[in-house]
Design brief:
By secondary structure, the protein is an alpha+beta fold. It is built from 3 helices and 10 strands, in the order βββββββαβββαα. The protein is elongated. The termini are far apart. The mean pLDDT is 95.
Length: 186
């Protein structure tokens, strides 16, 4: 399949976490093309932090889009050209107060390719040490929740965990699980 050609771009709106662009794409066979809206966002990261006891450090936080708390793994945006692995370690510390001895990439997904141009990377964090310096942004509040890794799959099915990118992160982890040394019983 030949790609469509990007012919023209107008920045419609800019805010702290994304820009909204109106882009005219022309099909490979030519013609005038059509206008599409694209959310120009920085890359995102998710972190699956697993303790030596086989627990996943999760965070419960209020999400404005659904106007209720959700149970998630630590995650956030890459700042500027920040390497996603560096962002993963930073977000883990900011949201949980834990530092990771190792941070390994599990994989990445396009969060919503019809309207977004970014990636969401998922990392496995291990050798965790509590630093006590959790430092959320002013509009964030977190409740740290430790969940045994063996209890996560039912939570993905029963609606306890609803964030689509968290579900994708655990799916990628499950596919690659044999590549990681995990605590016994995990």
């Amino acid at each position: 399949m030949k790609p469509w050609r990007r012919a023209e771009t107008d920045r419609i709106h800019s805010c702290r976490i994304f820009d909204l662009d109106r882009i005219r794409f022309v099909p490979p066979e030519g013609g005038e093309g059509r206008w599409y809206y694209v959310i120009d966002a920085p890359d995102w990261i998710n972190v699956i932090p697993i303790t030596d006891e086989g627990e996943v450090l999760m965070v419960r936080q209020f999400r404005f889009g659904v106007a209720q708390p959700t149970l998630e793994i630590p995650g956030g945006m890459c700042d500027g050209d920040e390497d996603p692995a560096v962002a993963a370690a930073r977000e883990l510390l900011e949201e949980t107060g834990y530092r990771a001895g190792t941070v390994e990439e599990i994989g990445w997904v396009h969060p919503n390719p019809p309207i977004q141009n970014n990636r969401c990377y998922t990392y496995l964090a291990r050798e965790l040490e509590f630093d006590g310096s959790a430092d959320p942004d002013p509009d964030e509040q977190f409740e740290l929740v430790k969940v045994p890794l063996v209890d996560v799959p039912p939570m993905l099915v029963d609606g306890t965990i609803t964030h689509a990118l968290v579900l994708a992160a655990f799916q990628m982890f499950d596919v690659r699980r044999s590549q990681f040394e995990l605590p016994n019983g995990s």
